[in-house]
């Protein structure tokens, strides 16, 4: 049990002014594993004020990018030393199985911080241009104070996708952790303090919807970076638009994996288990729709279901477990509700379809595979965010692309084929922000984000850094010599 009564504001651990608390419960048992303050209005205001002071009068934005890189490297060192503790904490908070916790929850987050520390070390913030009428100096300045709002499913990784580029750019932040998973954010704050991150650059608290809305609408917040549901993203977009506040929104998905006719089903279908069922299907780029050629549909369903049936389900601390619990009782019931919707629509459960036998304690859903799914069914259109996969047949490649694009979402997708060049051709036709051939990958050096209802803006890569910068032009008289300009 971890109990905290404070929040991290302005470089110090400050007693929360809120009388409310957040009880963090283990999804595997339902028992409490932590308690932290449910930050109130005064906490939010103090955190924003600290970030504002640090940006307006503190050293961080005025530092050379290479100096910021040194601090970020120190933070990386501190977090790396705490990686085992971070892994245990996240496992306790959201039930990620031990076999997935390192690469899926910790290592990738550290890689993002490492990437942006390296980018900051060589970052140029001024570029001369000859111009058509007079020379100009184009600057990239930090956007200002950032409200970073993160979800519970991959909390440390998604936090770093915001914190690392914002710090590299010279921004200051208020990190608002999800109520389900605040403990890892407290560990991040401890590491930042130990690493010597200047006071007010990173402020950390956890809160529910009311204080979260106060944060994103605060007049002294210049940008909101949010990952979460499309419904909440739309709410934030509307609130931000009223203030002309910058936003990055990484929202929901209903990604399609297209298995081409030349794919070897005996090897491909088992490989799809990882990109559909990891983290109990609770990740936004889960390939929750699998499209296979109609003339091989029965074979594909049989092979995929057989692979899913072999997945060990149970205690996330057990090294053999692949499917752990879902985050909460509410989420479990929501997923089970979608399974019943699928049945009512005429889809057939091949395996799973309920609570696993012997796992009444905690919040578990058996990995579930549906067949006889048509594109218009709700289970083929709506994000379930659980271990539920729909297999759909297609007639030809044009039909497969049309089904993949028949979605309000456009976050990710995959294609499976031995002909990688042809897979890239298919990728170009599917309307998503990110796409993978024969696997599932997010690279720190390449942009990630969605189209349609899957969001606005990009994270990761140079584009992810640019999201925390503003371009500014300074013109000078004709004939003025600028460095680097002949």
UniProtKB/TrEMBL annotation:
Keywords: Oxidoreductase
Presence of the UniProt keyword Glycoprotein in the record: no
Annotated protein name in UniProt: Betaine-aldehyde dehydrogenase
Active-site feature positions: 250
Organism this protein belongs to: Trujillonella endophytica
GO-annotated molecular function: oxidoreductase activity, acting on the aldehyde or oxo group of donors, NAD or NADP as acceptor
Domain Aldehyde dehydrogenase: 13-474
Keyword presence, Oxidoreductase: yes
Protein family: Belongs to the aldehyde dehydrogenase family.
InterPro entries: Ald_DH/histidinol_DH, Ald_DH_C, Ald_DH_CS_GLU, Ald_DH_N, Aldehyde_DH_dom
Taxonomy, superkingdom: Bacteria
UniProt xrefs under SUPFAM superfamilies: ALDH-like
